[in-house]
Amino acid sequence: MTARLSIEVTSPEALSVPVSATKVDQGRAWVYVIDNGKARKVEVGLGVSDGRTVQVVRGLSADQMVAVSNVSLLTDGAAVKVTP
Fold first, then answer.
1. Rounded average pLDDT over 21-31
2. Phi, psi of 26 (to 5 degrees)
3. CATH topology of domain 15-69
């Protein structure tokens, strides 16, 4: 007999971002934070993911704006246009 179980794990203190906003290379994860119209690469620590979003457990604060689209095209220092 088998069963399938889904457990939702949340933490009120944890930030989360769309999985698409993160990049992982050689075991290191990062996001691009938008500062004064420029993308800045910031290394982050990732926690649990539900496949759509992932927890950011270090390296990011709640007041920072994170790029969530066209992330694969960004480079550190690239000019970006923020749209609502």
1. 94
2. 55, 40
3. 2.40.420
Residue 16, strand partner residues = 55
Q: What letters, b where the CB count within 10 A reaches 16 and e where it falls short, cover 53-77?
A: bbbbeebbeeeeebbeeebeebeee
Residue 35 has pLDDT above 80, yes or no: yes
**Residue 12 confidence (pLDDT):** 60
Burial of 2 (0-12, 13-18, 19+ CB in 10 A): exposed
Give φ, ψ of 19 to 5 degrees: -55, -35
Nearest in space to 39 (alpha carbons), one of 49, 48, 30: 30
Q: For the chain, which residues make up each domain, given as ranges? A: 15-69
Residue at token pair 């944890």 = 14
Mean pLDDT of 69-74: 90
Could you identify the residue written with the tokens 């220092």? Answer: 77
